[in-house]
Amino acid sequence: MFKKDGQLIVIALGGNAFLQKGEKGTVEEQWKNVYVAAKEIVGLIKRGYKVVVTHGNGPQVGNVMEWMEALKDKIPPLTMDIAGAMTQGWIGYMLQQAIQNVLIEEGLDHHYRAVTLINQVIVKKDDPAWNNPTKYVGPYYYNEEEIEKLKKERGWVIKPDPRGGYRRVVASPDVVDNVEKEAIKLLYENDFIVIASGGGGIPVVADEIGRLEGREAVIDKDLGGQLLASVVDADIFIILTDVEGAYINYGKPDQKLLKELKVSEAKKLLEQGIFGAGSMGPKVKAAIRFAEKTGKPAYIGHLYKLQDILEGKSGTKILPD
Questions:
Q1: If one looks up domain 8-124+176-315 in CATH, what number appears?
Q2: What burial letters (b/e) apply to 216-231, b meaning 16+ CB within 10 Å?
Q3: Is residue 283 flagged as an active site residue?
Q4: Where is each Aspartate/glutamate/uridylate kinase domain found (predicted)?
Q5: Alpha-carbon distance 156 to 67, whole Å?
Q6: Which of 32, 39, 124, 135 is catalytic?
Q7: Per the confidence metrics, is the pTM higher than 0.90?
Q8: 124 catalytic per annotation
Q9: Active-site residue flag, 74
Q10: Is 259 a catalytic residue?
Q11: How far apart are the first and last CA of the chain?
């Protein structure tokens, strides 16, 4: 059971690991959901795998930004990179404790420990995304005077939101490296279950001698996850969500689960717009990138069917050509 040479799996948890449809997002609900995810993760440990976990942070970082704006007259607001670091600690703490408790329940705590790492990812200063911010963040604004003041005083880009009102928009640059990759390798090689690259990672840029500075941006959590999986030499990358996998005609009577795709096949479907741009599309793109870069398989599937995904009974498997 305690194989030291077990394969390394990087798991990217979706939002349903913390919040289910119809829930308000209370602390009690989050703990309940996190424990379900923790049991799935420990199930892999019992099968001899090494595991690194990453996760999204959209609702949580949104909450932090709402709180900051609500209290801005009393407490100076923080920047988005710091808000991202806060959520890595918040979510990492919950996952770490839940995983550790399940390890204790399973009698595995003498062999394995869970640990959370505050994790930065490098983005390029000249990424074209900086000139075209598209990701809506933070609260809604309706007062024209307030909007102009925010633009002037904080240098924000604010645009109409399709759902009403106005919101700040920030860039979503691509990720090129993971700053703490060597620390992550050292930890998992010594039987730690590592929680890293939360929210895709904290975006930073490097100067000519390697010094880092945070940037206000949104990192795609799935692309951040595939970078993590690639740089720590994962054998398998699994993106977990609230559907069984990638579908053709999703949500229609003739929907069809795509059980296995080669990279070239997946690319064609992605280019044809088969997958939702804001939902399944980024997941397929991340899976393609991992399989293409490493020559190893990537999977997309439901959080509650993790074992079935690995056995080929569920999910979508993307393979190199």
A1: 3.40.1160.10
A2: bbbbbbbbbbbbbbbb
A3: yes
A4: 8-301
A5: 18
A6: 135
A7: yes
A8: no
A9: no
A10: no
A11: 33
